[in-house]
């Protein structure tokens, strides 16, 4: 089902997803989705630079699949910022693939709760393109970590270590990241 998330002053965004494998009773689940956003005639004003007008557009496709305790997902996104006036255009292509395995850790603590720990690994990349189509920079990141699901996806803690690699502007910037996700 299409879902429009915003429409204001030339801005449109939305997301569409579809369950293509209705085997939830067998422990398998698959979803394929897409997303888009468009913002026309936006402006930014930096004190040291002249006012510029730009258009933003983005779209992407994603896939999720799980079977039993195994979880797999991937996504491809494309982003464009076209500037009129001062400033360069920005075009970025990005993607990731991720796999995980769910552990029911609390069963060993005699807990009657529905919590889980997911061990996960992710490989992702992005290409920032120059206005003439060349590669301005290429990022390749590998992440390993785990998620603690306290209340399904509505409340979880995510921890990961990211090994970062940049092709053009290489720097020592590996990172440990921890997030708390709360949906209500």
Strand order of the largest sheet: 1-2-3-4-5-6-7-8-9-10
What is the overall number of helices? 0
Mean pLDDT, all residues: 78
Give the N-terminus to C-terminus distance in angstroms: 21 Å
User: What is the CA-based Rg, rounded?
Assistant: 20 Å
Structural class, by secondary structure, is mainly beta
Number of separate strands: 10
Overall form? globular
Q: How are the SSEs placed, and which strands pair?
A:
Layout: E1 3-8, E2 11-21, E3 28-44, E4 52-67, E5 70-84, E6 90-103, E7 116-129, E8 135-151, E9 155-166, E10 175-182
Antiparallel strand pairs: 1-2, 2-3, 3-4, 4-5, 5-6, 6-7, 7-8, 8-9, 9-10
Question: Can you tell me about this structure?
Answer:
This protein is mainly β. The protein is built from no helices and 10 strands. Strand 5 and strand 6 (90-103) form a beta hairpin.
Short characterization:
The chain is mainly beta and 184 residues long.
Comma- or semicolon-separated keywords:
ten-stranded antiparallel sheet, 184 residues, single chain, 2 domains, mainly beta, disordered N terminus, globular
